[in-house]
């Protein structure tokens, strides 16, 4: 897994001095580093957290969406532009319809804010030493409700929202895949949605398979999990490390049209199926003959959540595909379709196709 590493000095300067050693296309780490290094002497709004909140007066003129712990970044600020551009670029086609309303910086003010910052630095240094000099620090997105995000900034993560597909932990999206955090966000009373941009200590990552019930690293060798080693779309930070390995730095507030049916970046394109339709009430018993009990339990839980209108049908299908795999689902649905065809015609599909070829018809035109 290719890593864009960030030196430990990044945590010593908080939002000042972030950098990347990658020779490939710069990530958000290096973009923020370049901007903050150039503007440090001119813009106190992106100075070291420990220097306190003393930003330009224009911040006070902007509408206050949050309490004093979150300081608005001026739209004319280079940092605002970098974060906005990175956020929108990860939304795919939805980016054209998304309006970023405000970006706020976590000031890390107060005793608890400083304590969490210092804790993050200590663990970043410890993981760096453990991993031979590369703590694998990344930027990542996290979506939620406005109230939930305010509580995270003020008090830290209270519990793991996600208990299903990739075990019990906090799921974050890489900096080039903001669409997943947007899908997890909840509109407030004014129609605004909010996501966090966090600094995350990943250390050595391990692959976590769909349907996993994991809640900690499988061994001391690993520090966090990913859904894909080569091109991760999810970073998984276990519950025991959620308030030491994740540091919320920015809140992005935005408006976006209806998200129903929005395709996630990196998800396979869903095509109209040519196979027979198979209801979940039939699919689950068929899958239970082929999948382990914990996978069936997970699929059944997702089906229940869909019936209770907790998740959309699109989300239900996506999760079932991740647990069972497209190859198995295709085989089960095809087998079911073949049985239906034989029951209705008295012929097997292979016999029907052979007859169709002899008569000069397309075998697919049954």
Automatic annotation (TrEMBL):
Compositionally biased tracts (Basic and acidic residues): 34-45
PANTHER family the record matches: INACTIVE POLY [ADP-RIBOSE] POLYMERASE SRO4-RELATED
UniProt feature, compositional bias: Polar residues: 17-33
GO CC list: nucleus
Protein name in UniProt: Poly [ADP-ribose] polymerase
Location in or out of the cell: Nucleus
UniProt xrefs under InterPro entries: Poly(ADP-ribose)pol_cat_dom, RCD1/SRO1-5, RST
Keyword Nucleus: yes
Every RST domain range: 271-342
Region annotation (Disordered) ranges: 1-54, 347-366
């Amino acid at each position: 897994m290719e890593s864009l590493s960030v030196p430990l000095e990044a945590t010593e300067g908080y939002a000042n001095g972030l950098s990347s050693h990658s020779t490939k296309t710069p990530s958000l780490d290096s973009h923020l580093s370049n901007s903050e290094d150039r503007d440090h002497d001119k813009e106190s709004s992106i100075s070291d957290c420990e220097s306190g909140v003393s930003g330009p007066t224009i911040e006070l003129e902007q509408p206050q969406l949050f309490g004093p712990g979150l300081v608005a970044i001026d739209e004319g600020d280079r940092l605002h532009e970098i974060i906005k551009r990175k956020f929108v670029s990860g939304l795919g086609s939805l980016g054209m319809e998304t309006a970023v309303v405000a970006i706020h910086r976590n000031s890390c003010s107060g005793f608890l804010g400083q304590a969490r910052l210092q804790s993050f630095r200590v663990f970043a240094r410890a993981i760096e030493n453990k991993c031979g000099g590369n703590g694998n620090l990344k930027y990542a997105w996290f979506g939620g409700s406005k109230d939930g995000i305010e509580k995270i900034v003020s008090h830290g993560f209270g519990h793991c929202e996600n208990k299903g597909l990739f075990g019990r932990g906090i799921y974050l999206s890489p900096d080039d895949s903001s669409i997943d955090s947007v899908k997890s966000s909840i509109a407030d009373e004014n129609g605004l949605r909010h996501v966090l941009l966090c600094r995350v200590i990943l250390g050595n990552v391990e692959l976590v398979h769909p349907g996993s019930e994991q809640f900690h690293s499988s061994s001391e060798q690993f520090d966090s999990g990913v859904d894909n080693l080569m091109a991760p779309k999810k970073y998984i930070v276990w519950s025991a490390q959620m308030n030491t390995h994740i540091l919320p730095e920015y809140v992005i507030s935005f408006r976006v049209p209806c998200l129903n049916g929005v395709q996630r970046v990196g998800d396979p394109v869903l095509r109209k199926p040519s196979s027979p339709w198979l209801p979940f009430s039939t699919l689950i018993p068929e899958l239970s003959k082929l999948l382990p009990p914990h996978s069936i339990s997970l699929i059944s839980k997702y089906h229940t959540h869909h019936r209770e209108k907790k998740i959309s049908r699109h989300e239900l299908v996506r999760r079932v595909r991740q647990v069972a795999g497209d190859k198995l689902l295709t085989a089960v649905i095809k087998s079911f379709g073949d049985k239906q065809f034989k029951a209705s015609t008295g012929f097997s599909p292979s016999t029907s196709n052979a007859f169709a070829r002899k008569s000069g018809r397309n075998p697919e035109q049954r």
